Automatic annotation (TrEMBL):
Record organism: Micromonospora carbonacea
Record-given protein name: MFS transporter
Cellular compartment(s): Cell membrane
Gene Ontology MF, one: transmembrane transporter activity
Chief place where the protein resides: membrane
Pfam families, alphabetized: MFS_1 (PF07690)
InterPro entries per the UniProt record, alphabetical: MFS, MFS_dom, MFS_trans_sf
Length: 457
């Protein structure tokens, strides 16, 4: 029986686009939260009397639950009503935002941010599963493409919106703005997400150990990449952390619940799509980190111009994502994936020719090309993964897809910095760091080509 034959009857009738809009709003607000908080950190640190090194825990407190809790929460969401789980996630995110806004010390802020990250991870796990229950399989690509455009749109809007809110009402308003948005998303979800006979369920205690192992492995892996520095000889700390990450992850893979998620990798179709997603995320993470330094330190442009140029990457994603879903639905997800990854590779290769004679526009159109390719890939990639699994594993598949994408985002910057340092480490050597983007873009294209080969086998 194919995945489409297993699709629940609730998606065989009229498509529920209100549900798609509801999850799209949550994707927008969580995407905006990732960037809007960065604008608030200096003011927040001054107000609470802490320095930059300490205040970074406001970001880490949100990011770590996304890595540690995504898969366990996906397994939990598969045992519950998607509508009730969505309402729980949205309400929890809104309440946590209020707790951050009213906090009067850093410890309370970080604790509330961890709570925000927990519900943000649950939202991420539910997005694809909710869409799969709300639209027909032949519309899945278009629905995912629309939602996929809203994440980068939120990330692009975040800094400007955050600056305006802070100037008008202080840093606490950056978190309070989440409340009315969560209310609208919850109201739409209540009216539009298909109901079922399942209710809410308590999470299993065994999932706590899964979360600890995933959190420890992910944290060790990311810290190990950041500690790697070829200019300082043998990076003992980096190697130790990476070994620790491998050991902890190996222990997790032997857990019973891990086999449910890893079972997706036994099927070549979702396996190669997930690899393509992870590599695509690494491209975006690399360019998102290196391009600002290239503009300000290498090309010597003003911060205003740099900000406008950096909008080219998410703008390309936003513009192309709906078309990627449409192409995937009409002519096959694999065709849209090949086109998208080919554009990403073309854009990254074009970046290797960067020189001191470049203008800001020379970098902008290349970033826009990479963004357009990423947008074309997003909808077909995630839709293909969801169509390859049974509906009762939808949230687990969604969480796994989100985890691989976020892992790519996370590993991109340290790998880009590593190749930059190997190239010399000066502002003029920043284009050497783009080699990481080229390699990961090529791997993403190769993975999608393997999808084509697997379909013909």
């Amino acid at each position: 029986m194919t995945a489409r034959e297993r699709t629940p009857s609730s998606t065989r009738g009229a498509d529920r686009w209100g549900a798609v809009v509801a999850v799209g709003i949550t994707v927008f607000i969580t995407g905006a939260d990732m960037t809007i908080v960065g604008v608030a950190l200096p003011t927040l640190g001054t107000d609470l009397g802490v320095g930059p090194t300490t205040v970074q825990w406001v970001v880490l407190g949100y990011a770590l639950p996304l890595v540690a809790l995504g898969l366990p929460l996906g397994r939990w969401a598969d045992t519950m009503s998607k509508r009730q789980a969505f309402l729980l996630a949205v309400c929890g995110f809104g309440v946590a935002s209020v707790l951050v806004a009213v906090a009067d010390r850093l410890g309370t802020v970080v604790a509330a941010r961890v709570m925000q990250g927990l519900f943000g991870a649950l939202i991420s796990a539910l997005v694809l599963a909710t869409i799969a229950r709300s639209v027909r399989p032949q519309m899945m690509g278009r629905a995912v493409g629309v939602v996929a455009a809203l994440g980068p749109l939120g990330a692009a809007v975040g800094p400007a919106l955050g600056g305006a809110l802070i100037e008008a009402s202080g840093w606490r308003s950056v978190f309070l703005i989440n409340v009315p948005i969560c209310f609208v998303a919850g109201w739409l979800g209540l009216r539009s997400i298909p109901a079922d006979d399942m209710g809410l369920a308590l999470p299993r205690r065994s999932w706590l150990l899964d979360a600890i192992l995933l959190g420890a492995g992910g944290t060790a892996f990311l810290l190990g990449l950041q500690a790697a520095d070829p200019t300082r000889g043998t990076p003992i700390l980096a190697l130790s952390l990476l070994v620790l990450a491998i050991v902890v992850t190996a222990v997790w893979t032997r857990r019973p619940d891990a086999r449910v998620a890893l079972g997706m990798l036994a099927d070549p179709l979702p396996r190669y799509w997930l690899i393509a997603s992870c590599c695509g995320g690494a491209v975006t993470g690399t360019l998102g980190f290196l391009a600002p330094f290239h503009l300000t330190d290498g090309l010597r442009v003003s911060p205003t111009v740099a900000g406008l140029v950096l909008l080219a990457l998410p703008a390309g994603m936003v513009a192309a994502a709906p078309f990627g879903g449409m192409i995937g639905d009409r002519w096959g997800h694999h065709r849209a994936g090949v086109l998208g990854t080919a554009l990403v590779l073309t854009g990254t290769v074009a970046l290797l020719g960067a020189s001191g004679d470049w203008r800001a526009a020379d970098l902008a159109w290349r970033l826009a090309l990479v963004g357009a390719g990423t947008g074309l890939l997003a909808g077909p990639c995630q839709a293909a993964v969801m169509n390859a699994v049974s509906p009762d594993r939808g949230a687990t598949a969604g969480a796994f897809s989100s985890l691989t994408l976020n892992l790519g985002f996370a590993i991109g910057p340290p790998l880009g910095v590593l190749t930059w340092r190997m190239g010399g480490g000066s502002p003029a050597d920043i284009p050497a760091g783009y080699t990481t983007a080229v390699v990961t873009a090529a791997l993403s294209l190769l993975a999608v080509c393997m999808v084509v080969v697997s379909r013909r086998a």
